């Protein structure tokens, strides 16, 4: 089992910044995908930024140049630094991990960007 706990969401104005954190615990050995996803009202969950095969990063085109994923292995924490936020970034952000083909999710944290 993998446990994921997000924090850091909130309300911010257009152009502002937020940093999300995801603390992971449990059986972290074997995790080969780890990162951030989001789901806006009425839309499907989508990839935002992930680590694969260790340190390889993948970003959604819509966030490239604005968001940065990073990790602190000593703290077992993954971060998402979000800059130049736009109203269309408003969503529930989920931390996700894949371990031996099984997907795990955190409870989600709301990010709201006001115009």
Instruction: Give the overall form.
Output: globular
Report the span from N to C terminus.
40 Å
Share of residues in helices: under 10%
Strand portion: over 45%
Mean pLDDT: 95
- Rg estimate, integer Å: 13 Å
Low-confidence stretches: none
**How would you classify the helix and strand content by structural class?**
mainly beta
Question: What's the story with the biggest beta sheet?
Answer: 7 strands, mixed
**Helix count from the secondary structure assignment:** 0
DSSP strand count: 11
Topology pattern, helix = H, strand = E: EEEEEEEEEEE
Overview of this protein structure:
It is a single chain. The strands form 2 sheets. Strands 2, 4, 5, 6, 9, 10 and 11 form a 7-stranded mixed sheet that branches. The protein has about 120 residues and is mainly β. About 0% of the residues lie in helices and about 60% in strands. Strand 5 and strand 6 form a beta hairpin.
């Amino acid at each position: 089992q993998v446990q994921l706990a997000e924090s850091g969401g909130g309300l911010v104005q257009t152009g502002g910044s937020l940093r999300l954190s995801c603390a992971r615990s449990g059986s972290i050995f074997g995790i080969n995908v780890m990162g951030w996803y989001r789901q806006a009202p009425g839309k499907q969950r989508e990839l935002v930024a992930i680590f694969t095969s260790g340190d390889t990063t993948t970003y959604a085109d819509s966030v490239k140049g604005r968001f940065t994923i990073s990790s602190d292995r000593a703290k077992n924490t993954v971060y998402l630094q979000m800059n130049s936020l736009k109203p269309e970034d408003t969503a529930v952000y989920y931390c996700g991990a894949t371990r031996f083909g099984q997907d795990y999710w955190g409870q989600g944290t709301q990010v709201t960007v006001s115009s």
